[in-house]
Amino acid sequence: MKYLFFIFLAIFIINLCTAQSAIGINTGYTYNHLNTDISNRALTENTNKGGYGFGLQIKHEIKTRLYLQTGIYLLQKNYSFNRIDDYIGIYETFNNSYIQIPLNIQFKAFKIKRVTFIISTGVYGAYWFYSKVYGTTPNIFDTTQEVGNDGEITQNLTVANFGEKYKFNSLIDNRFEYGFDTGLQLDYKVNSKYSIFLDSNYYQSLTDQQKKYMINQVSKTNQTLCISIGCLFKFSTK
């Protein structure tokens, strides 16, 4: 997957030197799910989290209705582990930022007046460059007591907030991510040079967030939906 990705990227750059191309920017919202097994964590929920995304998009026309598309994106792939029942209020959230480069084939499905419906599919490579962890944890040094009607004493723990930059471990963390993506784009033609688009993309990671460092390791893979809006500028090259 890694080598195929760079081969296709090289082909795209070569083809970009000819015919009609377009460049644009977009910004939007990401919604991520960490696909993993937490059955060993009692009274804990794996919760999806939202984030942000920015991108520079480049597309190159192969044929009348067929395009190659790439770019460079900054995407957040966040998730959280929340305690439930008697432990409500205790949680741990991970805000993970990736630099991502997709390589897609886009097909113009059909057009209604100025709006073109475009289907895309392809692969992507990403680098996990920043992470922050924050949440709440029980504070065993700060407790309260309640006395019930039957005289029974209940001791309650308070929670303490925490937040810090995550320190990557080269033996554990796999900071390179590869996978496939699919999407739908609605392109509104303003004039012969400019268009506004609404993009919806789903990214499925095929690589684990962690390296193989122990026996019976539970995998962690990202499943990310990104919805964005942007503007494209079309130009011709020779």
Describe it:
The chain is elongated. It has one domain: Beta Barrel (Porin), CATH 2.40.160. Strands 1, 2, 3, 4, 5, 6, 7, 8, 9 and 10 form a ten-stranded antiparallel sheet that branches. With 238 residues, the protein is mostly beta strands. The mean pLDDT is 88. A hairpin with a 2-residue loop joins strand 2 and strand 3. 6% of the residues lie in helices and 69% in strands.
Count of individual beta strands = 10
Q: Main sheet, how many strands, which sense, barrel?
A: 10 strands, antiparallel
Instruction: Return residue spans where pLDDT drops below 50 for at least 5 consecutive residues.
Output: none
CATH architecture: Beta Barrel
Helix residue percentage = under 10%
Question: How many alpha or pi helices?
Answer: 1
**What is the string of SSEs from the N terminus onward?**
HEEEEEEEEEE
The overall number of domains is 1
- Estimate the global geometry from the Cα principal axes: elongated
Query: Which band does the percent of strand residues land in?
Result: over 45%
- CATH topology descriptor: Porin
Give the radius of gyration: 23 Å
Structural class: mainly beta
> Which CATH C-level class is it?
Mainly Beta
Q: Please report the distance between the alpha carbons of the first and last residues.
A: 31 Å
Report mean pLDDT, rounded to a whole number. 88
In short:
The protein has one helix at residues 2-15; strands spanning 19-35, 44-63, 66-76, 79-83, 91-112, 115-147, 153-165, 176-189, 194-205, 221-237. By secondary structure, the chain is mainly beta. Strand 4 and strand 5 form a beta hairpin.
